[in-house]
Amino acid sequence: MSKPRGSDEQNQIAWDTIADRYQAERGWPHADLVWGHRIAPERELRILGELAGKRCVVLGCGGGQDLVALARLGAGSLVGFDLSRKMLDHARALLAREQVEAALVESSVADLSGLADASVDVVVSVHVLSFVEALDRCLAEAHRVLVPGGLLAFSVHHPLDASTSDVAPYVWAKPYFQVEAEWAWGALGGAQTPFRYHHRGVGQWFAAVRDAGFLVEELLEPPATSDAIWAGEDYSAKLEWVPGTLIIRARK
Q1: Region class of 74: left (phi > 0), else alpha (psi between -120 and 50), else beta
Q2: How far apart are CA 58 and CA 8, in angstroms?
Q3: Is the dihedral of CA 146, 6, 103, 114 positive or negative?
Q4: Chain centroid to CA 52: how far?
Q5: With contact defined as beta carbons under 8 Å apart, do 45 and 73 qualify?
Q6: In this structure, are strands 146-157 and 245-251 parallel, antiparallel, or unpaired?
Q7: Is 33 in contact with 247 (CB distance < 8 Å)?
Q8: Could you give the CA distance from residue 127 to residue 15 in angstroms, rounded to a whole number?
Q9: In a structure prediction context, what are the per-residue pLDDT tens digits for the chain, which is 252 residues long?
Q10: What Rg, from alpha-carbon coordinates, does the chain have?
């Protein structure tokens, strides 16, 4: 009997499988940092504050869009971590096209061993930590590499959105307290390589960040705006009723 895949291994295979089609058909904005579907961008939300010259790390940088966006917002040195080699290939191409310098590291976001203690000002992650099983290690590593007073800001799939159907009347599709779930992105050819999610509740996210030694400054559930980022018609309509993104800002 083969050994069951861990979340990192399973998600790495899944992202590598759909990387080309994802970037060609979906992608993600890079002119500004966008925290989730149909919510205002960073220039309006101002979650990160002034970034001029600050050393920033992106956990789960994917195709590099968030790195480019942070550069446009004035960030200094940039490092992106991602476990998908194919996604990092797309990141290198985007960084070259946009003439942005950033170091790219092929690694789980729970392993930041290439960074020294207290060497980073800001850690950012956009809709990635819901894929991470070893959240305690990931947050501990983020805490270790941040300077005193450093900022951690991340967005995740809102647990209410994750627990309800994308089609009206948006009934419960899984128990709110069921953390682990598998889902195959069949529309992008990933039906045979399902992703493994870890849909923690709002209280669980708060506790995990607090237990890693951070002071939670804000929990945000931004309402839908008129903008849509490759959200299908049904899902776009759902976001008028159910928050799609949870954002947490915390300080070391």
Answers
A1: left
A2: 17
A3: positive
A4: 22
A5: no
A6: antiparallel
A7: no
A8: 14
A9: 444 578 999 999 999 999 999 999 888 999 999 999 999 999 999 999 999 999 999 999 999 999 999 999 999 999 999 999 999 999 999 999 999 999 999 999 999 999 999 999 999 999 999 999 999 999 999 999 999 999 999 999 999 999 999 999 999 999 999 999 998 888 888 788 899 999 999 999 999 999 999 999 999 999 998 775 666 778 889 999 999 999 999 999
A10: 17
Token digits for 77? 């040195």
Q: Delineate the domains of the chain, giving CATH numbers in brackets.
A: 7-251 (3.40.50.150)
Closest Cα partner for 183 from 168, 153, 163? 163
Q: How far is CA 33 from CA 109, 138, 165, in A?
A: 19, 22, 27
| Helices first, then strands: H and E counts in the chain | 8, 9
Angle of CA points 115, 116, 121, to nearest 5° = 80
Nearest to 200 by CA among 156, 231, 243: 156
Which residues have a Cβ under 8 Å from the Cβ of 224 and sit 6 or more positions away?
Answer: 38, 39, 236, 239, 240, 244
Cis peptide before 169 (omega within 30 of 0): yes
Among candidates 84, 103, 83, which has minimal Cα distance to 92? 103
CA distance 192 to 49: 41
